[in-house]
Amino acid sequence: MPLMVHNTLSRKKEPFLPLHPGEVKMYVCGITPYDLCHIGHARATLVFDTVKKYLEYRGYRVTMVRNFTDIDDKIISRAAALGVSWREVSDRFIQEYQKDMQALGLRSATVEPRATDHIQDMIEMIRVLEAKGYAYAVEGDVYFEVSKFPPYGKLSGRDPGQMLAGARVEIDARKRHPLDFALWKSSKEGEPSWESPWGRGRPGWHIECSVMAMKYLGETLDIHGGGADLIFPHHENEIAQSEAYSGKEFARYWLHNGFVSVESEKMSKSLGNFFTIREALAKYDAEALKLFLLSTHYRSPLDFSEKRMKEAQKALNRARATLQKAEEAAAGAEGHSEHGLSTELFSLLEEKERAFVEAMDDDFHTPRAIGVLFEGIRHLNGYLNEGVRDPALASMARRIRDLAGVLGVLQQEGEVNFVADEEKVEVSWEDYGAARDRIEISWQEGEDARPEDIRTVLLWRGVARAKKDWESSDEIRNWMKERGIHIEDTREGYYWRRIPR
C-alpha cells in the first residue's frame, strides 16, 4: 500500500507521489518570534518533524524549510513595550524557540531562513507580479489583485464573490477589492523599513513564505504545512501570488494540523489557560508531552488537560520500565536462547512493524502507531511476567525503540526507574537519613544523586505511606522534587526520574 496523505487542497486522502522520486521538498510556516512558545507551537513543530522523520524512515531524502517571520506588527509592538529594538526582540525569541525545541528533542529544519534576510528577493517578486498585471501600487503600498487570479479560494473552498473583508483580511478603502492583500507596506514613522521602487516600507505577511519556499525548494513544492488557522488567508494568498508569479503549481500537497484547546476552551492568556512549553516541561518530561501531543491525529483538534498529561506520563514510565527490564533480562540470558521462543518473538516483531507502517502510511496516523508500539510492549511485559529470559527480548525492545524514534519517544534509556512497593520494609531510619544527606550534598554540588540513595529514600517513604503518615510522605515527595527528582506513585510501587536543572 502507498503512503496516503490528506490533501487540504483536494479535501481527500491521496497517494503521496513527490515530484522527483525519492526526494521530498517540504515547507512549513514557522513562528513570529515575539514571545515564548506555547504548546500549540510545540504541536505544530512536532507534527511536521514527525512527518519528516517518517518520510526519511520510508527512504526519502527530505529537505525541509521552516521560516522565521522576524518582522511583524506584534514584534514592533513588543519592542516598543520593552523599550528595545525590533531586532533584539526577534533575535531573543528565536533563541528562546530554539532552546524550547532542543528541550523537546526536536530537530532544526534543513534551512531556517529569516524574512528580513530576503527583502530584496521579495521586492523582485513583487516587481514581477506588478509587471504581469497581478499587482498595483497605491501611495507606496502594493496590493495583489485577487480578481486577476480566477482560482482564488481553491484551498479554503471559499467563493471570492461571497467573501467580505473581516477578521484577517486587511480593510483599506484604497483597495480595488476587499480581498486584495498587501505585498508591500509603506513605512510608518518610527517603524523599520527598507528601500523599494515604491518608497520605503516593509513586506506584507504573505509574500515572505512564497519567496523563501521557492528560493530554497524551487517553484513547486511537494508538501506545504502549517496550522489550520493559516489556510485562509495566508496559504490561500501564498498560492495566488506564487502561481501568478511562476505559472506553475505551488505545492502538490497541503497538510494542516488542528487547533489546541485547554480543558475544552480556546487557549488564551486572558482566560489564564495559556501554557508555554517551558511551563509544561517543568511538570512533565519532554517525551510525555510528545506522546500526549501525538495521541490525537494531527488534523484533529487537541484538548490539553492535566488528566491526559498525567496519563501520558504514566504510560511512558511503564513503557520505559518494561523496555529496560526486557534488556536486562536478555543481558542475563546470553547463550541461553530458546530457538522456538526467538522465532515467536521475531514473528511478533515483524507483525508490529507492519502494523506501525500501515498506521503511519494512513496519513501519519500517530495514535494508531502509538497503539501498535504499546501492544508490543504489553507482549514484552507478558513474557517478562512469565519469567522468560532470552536474548531475543533485547532485539524486540531495540526495534520498538527504533520505531518509537520516528515519533520521538522511548529514546531516553534508564531515565525512569522503578521501586517495587513490597521492598518498603528494608530501610532503617539511619540508612534513610544518610541517603538523604548524600542526596542533599550531590544537589548542592551540581551532581546527580546516586540511584541507590534515591531508592533508599523511596523505600522509607513507602514505610510512611503504609502507616498512612501522609504528611511525612508528602514532605519527602516535595523535598525530592526540589532536588531534581520527580516521583510518581502507582499501585505496584514508585517510578522516579530526574528533572533537568
Poorly predicted ranges? none
Task: Describe the strand arrangement of the main beta sheet, using strand numbers.
Answer: 4-3-9-10
> How many E-type strands?
16
Radius of gyration: 27 Å
> What is the SS-derived class?
alpha/beta
Helix percent band: 40-55%
Strand portion: 5-15%
Describe the biggest sheet?
4 strands, parallel
- By CATH, the architecture of the largest domain is named 3-Layer(aba) Sandwich
CATH class (first level) name of the largest domain:
Alpha Beta
The CATH topology of the largest domain corresponds to: Rossmann fold
The CATH superfamily of the largest domain bears the name HUPs
Our count of helices gives 15
Give your account of this protein's structure.
α5 packs across α6 (231-246) and α9 (306-331) runs antiparallel to α12 (392-407). The protein has 501 residues and is α/β, with parallel strands linked by helices. The protein is globular and about 85 Å long. β15 (485-489) and β16 form a beta hairpin. It folds into 3 domains: 4-266, 3-Layer(aba) Sandwich (Rossmann fold), CATH 3.40.50; 317-407, Anticodon-binding domain of a subclass of class I aminoacyl-tRNA synthetases (Four Helix Bundle (Hemerythrin (Met), subunit A), Up-down Bundle); 417-498, no CATH class. It has helices at residues 39-57, 73-82, 86-104, 119-131, 207-217, 231-246, 277-283, 286-294, 306-331, 339-361, 366-385, 392-407, 429-444, 451-466, 470-482, and strands spanning 4-7, 12-15, 23-28, 61-66, 135-138, 141-144, 181-186, 201-203, 221-227, 251-257, 260-262, 265-266, 302-304, 417-420, 485-489, 493-498. A 4-stranded parallel sheet has the order 4-3-9-10, with helices on both faces. Strands 5-6-7-8 form a 4-stranded antiparallel sheet, with helices on one face.
